[in-house]
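I'm stuck. Protein, please.
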Amino acid sequence: MAGNDLGSLLGSLLGGAGGQSGGSGAGGILGSLIGALAGGQGGGGTGGSGGASNPLGGLLDMLTKSGLTDQTRSWVGTGENQSVSGAQIAEALPDETLQKVAQDAGVSPQEAADQIAQSLPQAVDKLTPTGSMPQGSLEDIIREQRL
């Protein structure tokens, strides 16, 4: 539902016009992840920049708390994006979230983590062109950045 919409928006943001209809594209994986975090995981409520309307802030808070502070700052900032491994993503995300994302995409949890690790830095970078987390719902932010 919301994950599919987010997936198509994120896919177009990432230049994923390759005709991938399923959840196997980068946008589909990220949309599923954001949807799972927004819907099933209410645990991001302590992060001041988001809550339910912008689960991206909650995701970045989760990654930061897992020791990926330098990486997440580089994605939001205006400099070079630092890479992250699938193993780091798998360690940072709740198991049930990664399982759901993998199931939605039709891949193994490790493949899902690898795809997230490859596409998340670019997606966050494109969603934060000014070097800070924009205000508003994630859908509004994505649409705004598609100019």
